[in-house]
Design a protein that fits this description.
The protein is of the alpha+beta class and 295 residues long. 53% of the residues lie in helices and 24% in strands. The chain contains 3 helices and 10 strands, in the order H-H-H-E-E-E-E-E-E-E-E-E-E. Helix 1 runs antiparallel to helix 2, helix 1 packs parallel to helix 3 and helix 2 packs antiparallel against helix 3.
């Protein structure tokens, strides 16, 4: 009977141990499930923090890209967020660390709002400055066009005045003459009888021409095309030059003026053939040409 009681006691103890073991297993499984659930939640929270940080970084990237000039504050904030992302990705997830980073995300969002407001303000200021600059450029361009127009008009006016003030000839004649013993000059067409050429021209009146001393150049070409009495030359402002036979000086008073001059014969007699006489003003503009023949 005693042995029966002992067996019953062992059975009770074994039953209790079984209950305890079962409870322990259930508790352990429960703890494992809770830990697994907590780890999943922490991992999910960690991913949310990384997602928020990536979103902030993307906004900074966009703001930097839209900015005309590199904003150092935006770049520094973006780089700081990139470091936070790396830290969160590599850290061991726990509640305290995630809470700290979550608070940091909130701080970064506030900082982002302030920076973006500052950037928007700068963009508006830059846009206003650009608008003012463009307006100034347009006005300067208009003024430049106006000035260029004035320059063209003034140049055209100066050219017109210069052309209008140029002297011209109304008459031009060349006569081969011989001089009699009494000094009287008689026209001739014979080379051997010719003592000189008498060259006369009339300078037309011009009220806008400048009055004063003037000089015209007479160029006489012999039958061979050589300049008679050549040796003197004249050059204008454009670099053109001529050789001339004689310079004729006169005083011009804006009225018709008759001018005559003589070209003496060279050593020996004049040659038979065709001659040409040209008259140039002081700017070497050709004013008149005359041809004649000596026999």
């Amino acid at each position: 009977m005693t042995e029966t009681k002992s067996n019953n006691g062992l059975k009770v103890i074994a039953g209790l141990l079984g209950v305890v073991l079962l409870g322990t297993i259930i508790y352990t499984v429960s703890l494992y499930q809770d830990k697994k659930k907590t780890t999943a939640l922490l991992t999910q929270e960690k991913e949310l923090v990384v997602e928020d940080l990536n979103s902030l970084k993307s906004e900074y990237d966009k703001a930097i890209l839209e900015s005309n000039a590199t904003n150092e504050e935006l770049v520094a904030a973006r780089d700081r967020i990139a470091k936070y992302i790396d830290s969160v990705k590599t850290m061991k997830a726990d509640i305290s660390a995630l809470s700290r980073y979550r608070r940091q995300v909130d701080v970064l969002k506030q900082e982002r709002e302030q920076l973006l407001l500052t950037v928007d303000s700068l963009k508006q200021s830059n846009a206003l400055i650009a608008m003012q600059r463009d307006s100034t450029f347009v006005e300067l361009e208009k003024q430049t066009v106006f000035n260029d127009s004035l320059v063209v008009q003034n140049t055209q006016l100066a050219d017109a005045v210069e052309r209008g003030s140029a002297l011209n000839l109304t008459k031009f004649s060349v006569d081969a003459v011989r001089e009699r013993n009494n000094g009287k000059l008689v026209s001739t067409s014979r080379a051997r009888s010719t003592d000189k050429f008498k060259i006369c021209f009339t300078v037309a009146d011009n009220v806008i021409a400048e009055a004063g001393d003037r000089e015209f150049f007479i160029e006489v070409l012999d039958p061979q095309g050589n300049v008679m009495g050549g040796g003197a030359s004249a050059t204008n402002d454009q670099g053109a030059s001529i050789s001339y036979s004689k310079g004729t000086n006169f005083y011009y008073e804006n009225k018709n003026l008759d001018v005559c001059d003589f070209i003496n014969k060279p050593n020996g007699d004049f040659q038979d053939g065709n001659y040409m006489v040209n008259v140039y003003d002081d700017k070497l503009k050709l004013l008149g040409t005359s041809k004649f023949t000596l026999k």
